[in-house]
Amino acid sequence: MPEDHNEVGSISHRRYEQIVAELREVVGQQSRGMFVIGDRALEIEPMRPQGGRPAGDRTPVVRESLLRLAEDIGLSHGMIVAARTTAARWPKEHRRPDVSFKVHRLLAAIEDEEERFASILTPPAGKTRWSVDDANRRVGRQVDTPVSPQEKLSAIHALARDEEVAAAVTTELLRRPAVAAQVSAEDKVRVVEELTRDEKVAAAVTTGLLRRPAVAAQVPRQDKVRVVEELTRDEVVATEVTTGLLRRPDVAFKAMADDTARHQVNHAQVERGRQAREHFERTSPVAPAVRRIERTMEFIDLVAACHSFVAAAGRTVPGLRDRQLGEDEKTIVHENVSRVRATLDWIETAVDTGKVDVDGELARLLAGE
Fold first, then answer.
1. Residues in CB range of 104: below 8 A, 6 or more apart
2. Tens digits of per-residue pLDDT, 119-134?
């Protein structure tokens, strides 16, 4: 039977209006109560100005105060926080008694004060009151009863948060040619990315695509670089590729223009020389004689270094006569004198004991830290 337009549910329209009026009063009382809670929470812990906190303000302290208040009045901490924030965003003169506290809380997300205060006075077109869904729409949140295609899409996303459900829905939809034809190129790319999360599947798909010259030609340069980096994670492959590339003069020249690459090549050459030297010292019968010659040269170099330092100081220090250095200059000189003293102690220890190990403090001094 068709519904009687003079009835709402099991009651008359007149009785329904009486119930609405009664419940609006109840909602108004609840809203006033929540604002009282928010105002008192603000009195206990006022909102701090953005961009900095006064001395002594620490977030754990605020949380502790609000947790205590919540426990003492039998409400959740989250409800206390929401009431405090909402009360702060809605000064008493801008609160509407005919609008629920929840709508106030949702519209509190509007950052601009003038826009926020004006919004609560102007319900959506064609309506005389704000609803929770209207407030959610106003601040860009998901609604309980979706109407527009975008709202329905958001609702589907929410329902399909479970991965198994999402996979089943996606598979079913993509089997419908009319649906698949309307999927944009960007979304198809994202679908492929999701379907190729399995490394074996991704490897097979990538290999097949890169064998198509027309596809490879459209890959941006930076993406080609990333592909090469991924394909050369294996050191054997990386060695073969790098060796082949550096045999190309133009490539080698451009590569050496990069400071980091040049440093790594130089470091590799030094390291290879060190390894060759260690191999020579372990295996060559003439290694002991070479070490004796090197020690003599090291002695000469050390004496020459000391002589050079004394001579340089003898030339430089007299030039400081009647000159007052600035505080920054004095600090720099003292730091360097400390390094020199530490180095001299190190030399004496090495000469007396033959130990040349550098402890942590000396290493920091020598590094200028």
1. 31, 35, 86, 90, 95, 96, 120
2. 999 999 888 899 999 9
